[in-house]
Design brief:
The protein has helices at residues 15-27, 34-44, 52-62, 68-80, 123-133; strands at 5-6, 50-51, 84-88, 94-98, 103-107, 114-118, 160-162, 165-167. The chain is α+β, with helices and mostly antiparallel strands. It has 2 domains: 5-98, Winged helix-like DNA-binding domain superfamily/Winged helix DNA-binding domain (Arc Repressor Mutant, subunit A, Orthogonal Bundle), CATH 1.10.10; 103-167, Dna Ligase, domain 1, CATH 3.30.1490. The strands form 3 sheets. The protein has a 3-stranded mixed β-sheet, with no helix packed on it. It has a 3-stranded antiparallel β-sheet with strand order 2-4-3. A two-stranded antiparallel sheet has the order 7-8. Helix 1 (15-27) packs across helix 2 (34-44), helix 2 packs across helix 3 and helix 3 (52-62) packs across helix 4 (68-80). The longest helix is centred in the first third of the chain and has 13 residues, at 15-27. It is globular.
């Protein structure tokens, strides 16, 4: 899978931000372990979507004895607490990032590239899916389509064939 991720600029993790998350973890019965602190530094130090393996490599650069299973457990806990979001981009590994900024993802099914877009881009679709079908779309997890660079004729994006069905993508 291509890792052409377009994101906002990275930020430096603040001690206060890490302490805020650790306080939340403690309120839920968790501990402020060195592994958890290093993982938070890795997550808060960027706005990029990173795989568990990438995050583990950064954690292990400071604490080589931290096991991959520990990283996965901490990521699951942080996701459950609403601190991070897990996103699948195409066929590649799941990626993690801070949940602080509401946004959706446009993932190209051909190249696997991903572009973050504002959550409000999906509002009409979310409303229409709920009103017509009772279906609740999570804009953060919603993804499907073909990026302009993946098809020769930009107008072909209007009539994308997906698994043998014609979809126009139009909502009225």
């Amino acid at each position: 899978m291509s890792r052409d991720v377009q994101t906002r600029p990275a930020e430096h993790p603040s001690h206060a931000a890490i302490e805020d998350v650790l306080a939340l973890v403690r309120r839920q019965g968790g501990r402020a372990t060195p592994a958890r602190q290093l993982l938070l530094q890795a997550l808060l130090g960027t706005r990029e979507h990173r795989s568990a393996e990438e995050l583990a490599a950064e954690v292990r650069s400071h604490a080589p004895d931290v096991h991959m299973s520990t990283v996965y457990r901490k990521l699951e806990e942080l996701e459950r607490l609403g601190v991070i979001d897990c996103t699948r981009m195409g066929e590649g590994p799941a990626t993690y990032h801070l949940a602080s900024a509401a946004h959706g993802h446009l993932v190209c099914e051909k190249r696997g590239s991903m572009t973050e877009v504002p959550d409000d881009m999906f509002r009409a679709l979310v409303r229409a899916a709920r009103a017509r079908y009772g279906f609740a779309i999570n804009p953060h997890r919603f993804r499907a389509g073909i990026a302009p660079a993946s098809h020769p004729d930009p107008s072909s994006a209007q009539n994308i064939t997906h698994r043998g069905n014609q979809h126009t993508g139009r909502l009225t």
